[in-house]
Amino acid sequence: MESLVIPVLILLLVGAGVLLVVRAVGRRTSGTKTSGSTPPRDPVELARAAASKLTEDQHRRLYALIAQGQAMAAIKLYYEASGEGLRASRDAVGALAAHPQPFGPAAPEAPDNDDDDTPERFPYRYRAIASKGDVTREVSSNMLNDEIYGRIRTLARSGDTEAAATALTRHSDISMKQAREFIALLDD
Q1: Domain boundaries, the chain
Q2: Element (H, E) at 164
């Protein structure tokens, strides 16, 4: 019996040592995950905050770079303009590209009207692109935004192509024929 006491004590000490090492490594990795990182934010909120940090000229140049597909140059411009870190600049430019923001102070939110009778003009041009096979159509308008285009796509995908085409012509400067061609590329 005495011959087993020493090996059991050694085994317990090794187990306790392994447990302490595992806890220390676990604390270290969870500490690096939380320190220095901000909680995930809503991309629209991030885009609004990012746009508010730019001057009018920087805002215009940034969206020009995004429209030309020059993501790295856009990130560099935002990085230099905002003074934020590289990762934050990358996230901000991604949010600005996905959710275009007008320049200037945000206008007070108007009550949500679901009707499309009176289109609002935005200070930026929204580009909607649809393609199927070799056919590509583009609509560019300052009366479109993510929300309106989303409603148009939903109408097209639900099979109400005439309503979608009508809404598209109401929010852009294209003819009904061009709108029907664009909508035909959306409904799958």
Answers
A1: 43-98, 126-186
A2: helix 161-170
